[in-house]
Input
Amino acid sequence: MTRVFMKGCEAIAEAAVRAGCRFFAGYPITPQNEIPEYFARRLPEVNGTFVQGESEVASISMVYGAASAGIRAMTSSSSPGISLKSEGISYCAAARIPMVYSNISRGGPGVGAIQPAQMDYLQATKASGNGGFEMLVFAPSTVQEAVDMTYHAFDYADRDRNPVLILADGVIGAMMEPVVLPEMKSEEEVRSIQEAKRVWACVGHKLDYPNRAWIEPGHWQTSDMQRANEEAAALYKSWEKDVQVECYQTEDAQIVITAYGISARIAKSAVNLLRKEGIRAGLIRPITVHPFPYDAIASLDYSRVKAILDVEMSIPAQMLQDVQLAVKDRCPITTCLCSGGNIMGREMIIDAVKNLLK
Amino acid sequence: METNLCVAGFGGQGVMTLGKFLASATCDSTDKNVTFFPSYGAEQRGGTANCFVVISDEEVGAPLGNVMDDLIVMNEPSLKKFINTLKPNGTLFINSSIVPEETGRDDIKLVKAPVTELALELGNAKVLNVIMLGVYVGYTNVISPEIVWDTIEHKLGKKPKLLPLNKAAFEKGLELGRSQR
Amino acid sequence: MEQIYARTKAIQEDKVSGFCPGCMHGLVVKLIGEVLEEMDLVDKAACCLGIGCCGLQMDYMAYDNITSPHGRACAVATGIKRTNPDSLVFTYQGDGDFASIGLAESLSAANRGENISVIFINNGIYGMTGGQMAPTTLIGMKATTAPGGRKAEEHGYPMHMCEILNQLTAPVYLERTSCNTPANVIKTKKAIRKAFQNQLDKKGFSLVEIVTSCPTNWGLDALKSLEFLEEKMFPEFPLGVFRDR
Output
């Protein structure tokens, strides 16, 4: 396995290309510009198409169009840009169009800060647009994970005919790290993936009324709309099997840290240092932040766990709400937070854990 | 074993390239884990630039921290900004052409390299970062100099004309770094 | 007996139009269907529908269609056409969709010279939402959101999309037509055919703006609305070919 040293943003883009993504539309916004820039160079090499849209709103609509035509398509943005894309994301979810997008999140709300932050958890996991739709949301904590998640995201999207979100942050996007890249899908594989979607793709069909492609992000008839909602709800329920979580050193932990993405890898190194001092700390890291791994947290032995420390680069804390749902008042929960573009410090977490044990 | 390094200076002094060469070399030719994290101001030109490199035998936690094992400063403002992140007994590498030796810290090791002057002596002010990389590798031996040179050679592959100059710069730095061990 | 007229196969047999009496949407939808059939393009067609009354045809059109987010039809069409150049990709949008909420998408797609065709229905009012002011509403014309009529000093002037797009370099074909007389219906059909042919010839962006009536929201009967078209709409929106390259 050859390791290559890649920037998170570029690695995400390369992983997408290798997964067969052949269309990308996006609009510049820091800190994710390397994603569209990489696609602009790379897609023409594989007969793919890159379009710089006139806005985030237009870009997601282009992706909606390309994905509705059966192509593996992707867009990317950062926090305020993701809000603009929420219209198109909701349309994709409503019309059950598979596509992948990434949020290389930054400080917020508003224009916020161009530096890394985790301020979009609730938006990403609860309401990425109007209408109560849900998506699989993966939160990478290393560049390698960002690569693997992006690569497989297209399979999940096609399996479910639903959008998939890679929720990363400005650190993962900007940092360089060794990665092993997944295999490049052959032109044949890419074609057969497209061919499989031909039956519903909006690209023209033989004159045959029932079989025309009809991409419907809504319905005139209330009964049709409700049926679509019910089908979507059944899909979302089926995702219980897709929950991914990392439980690190939790077997005997007295203090359990909950953290995702960049905060989680920093927390993990804090756990290692705490363990060297004999402090029994552990970490629960949701890998899918939606669906959320409630069970992993709920099934802790609360006769042993003294407290939960929720670590996020967000003020106020957001994932905390899901952690609370899982813990159900069985032990105290405190937080260790930073925001505004400040990066979580390992020492901060170590101090917070020690404080809990005082 | 984990080494946290911060490289800081003016935009244009090649601090990012210095960090990237070191990190890429580690990725290409060792089994170690390594991260590189750049930090820019919002300005496209000028201002300060710094990057963080973490080299570790274990998984890397934070790709940038508040406590540095090593600190390379290429200009005076960076010294002021980062000197307090250096841990006790940490090593400070200064571009002694333009950075004063008075650091206000007596619990650290100081390695001096007048890289601005040396680069001019070599005939190209731009290679100051490669000299400093040589100083750092020569002093710390964090990874072998041959590996680092292979990476520089590879990265400059498209501009072979620049190789002799960079080779001389890197060698000069190694010598200077080793001499202060 | 010789059959001289039949309903186009591009419209489903057993379906009924959902448009109001006197509305010209149904007529334009029929023209598009006939052109598609005559050009043997029904099985290549991908229609990007705008939001509003445009969408009322989706139930009975016989070819592929996608409902675009409000105003984004040209962006959606860009995504389909760029990845499937063999499809015939066109948008069908009203004035609110094309000229107000979608102005950025419309101008940008035209400016990129996307190889798509736009059918733009301009009736000077928001239809489905119930008679609100459009960017193309005439000065003095009443709307539910401009109850005293459109005032230049408050609302600005009607927007002329053919004229605006004519400032751009990339578009190849810009024509404004109407469907108020049999002659104009024939002209409109020819214009649609040309817009589609341009796309087949890979020429680039074509726009057919069709000035139509909205008896329901204009508060006029069908015949009176034809008079309104000729007396009020045409002076503001002169018919003709603005560009043909």
